[in-house]
Amino acid sequence: MDWARDGQNWPNAAHSRFVDAAPHRWHVQVAGDGPVMLLLHGAGGATQSWRHLLPLLAERYRVVAPDLPGQGFTRMGTRMRCGIGPMAEDVTALCKAEGWVPEIIVGHSAGAALALEIVHRDLMQPRAVVGLNAALSKFDGMAGWLFPLMAKFMAINPLIPPLLARMAGGEARVAELLTSTGSEVDAEGVALYRSLMTDRAHIDGTLAMMSQWEIGRLLDRLPEIDLPVILIAGATDGTVSPEVSRKAHAQLRGSVLAVLEGLGHLAHEEAADVVARHILRALDTLPERTTALRASG
Length: 297
Fold this sequence. Notes:
8-stranded mixed β-sheet; 297 residues
């Protein structure tokens, strides 16, 4: 997307800035004061996904929300660093370049997997991770090899992104796709997702991420993660079943789980006040950071 054309109507645009941190040119929104809280959106989303939640969290934290490489307004410096490992390294490099030391990392969907990859590799040492409808599972059965293969094919075919952008169609089609997530997104949200879904560069970045996304190794190491993980799942999530969060909860030693009735995959967009309340209440119950806690990780 073009910031000069679309950015002035972007949610929380007053908090937007651009940062050159190799290898990408990042679009980041920064708001509030206090300990740093890093927000990582899911595949196919962007900072607009946090439009309601960011101001609420910024009342207590300095919230940092980047668009991931190739998505939203962030421009990829290379298409070869969209897997979970390289992306974890590049997000860390961005934070170091700006002097941000996140105390909390909040990830939605694939962003939750990215947050846990950062923690497991000890790239950052946050006090806790929050996973919203965390995508912590692999595709099952035939989809396990077919879907990634299709994503890789689409990612290398230059004709696919513009074709998918045209197929996204009008707002009615986008609204239908969003409804399939189990969430009720407002009219503003539908229009914003349509902007993303009809943008060739955004689709290209999303396909690059999907084609390189491999989290099997992370899933095997979930029991090794030794810090508080707050899992929040929508009971009606049609994209990532709440059973995924229940399974992750059983593997993560320091986790707590809340399942929110009546909310879907985009719970933080349809009920930001409810999600913010759960996040802040859970964070308030955490013990103070200690040297011993980090030494045991």
